[in-house]
Design a protein that fits this description.
The protein has about 140 residues and is α+β, with helices and mostly antiparallel strands. It has five helices and seven strands, in the order E-H-H-E-E-E-E-E-H-E-H-H. The protein has a five-stranded antiparallel beta sheet with strand order 3-2-5-6-7. Strands 1-4 form a two-stranded antiparallel ribbon. The radius of gyration is 26 Å and the shape is elongated. The termini are far apart.
């Protein structure tokens, strides 16, 4: 059995720790500035060591984790979760954000149908054409 390395590439660690499904996705997110080490933007080839503090933003969720271990390969979820520990401040901030989203959801998230289709627009136009308003009615008198 081989010994764990002293450091490894950031994109490979994010993939092994199961933050991203593929290394290509990890590279893309790092290049977009959504992953930082010590508050500084980094590149995918940056070496990560045990004790580094990473800021990771996945969607609307921001997490701050400390690297606890390195693994050269991707393993099952319990093994991946042993590679990092989320900071207490990050846990409370994430829970507060989740509670805020639950209490006041994004209005756009409630739209289920989206834009009307061509058929829907035609139906609306037909309905509007055949509807009668009070201005259209002649007054007898």
């Amino acid at each position: 059995m081989s010994e764990a390395p002293a450091s490894m590439r950031l994109d490979k660690w994010l993939w092994a720790a199961r933050f991203y499904k593929t290394r290509a996705l990890a590279v893309e997110e790092i290049n977009l500035g959504r992953v930082r080490i010590g508050g500084q933007p980094v590149k995918p080839a940056r070496d990560v060591k045990v004790g580094d503090v990473l800021s990771i933003r996945i969607g609307a969720v921001a997490r701050e984790v400390e690297v606890k271990g390195l693994s050269p390969q991707r393993g099952p979820a319990p093994q991946a979760q042993a590679l990092y520990a989320e900071t207490p401040a990050s846990i409370t901030a994430r829970e507060a954000a989740a509670e805020a989203r639950r209490l006041a959801p994004e209005p756009a998230a409630t739209i289920t149908q989206g834009r009307p289709t061509k058929q829907d627009r035609r139906r609306l136009a037909d309905w509007d054409r055949w509807s009668v308003s009070l201005d259209d009615v002649d007054d007898p008198g």
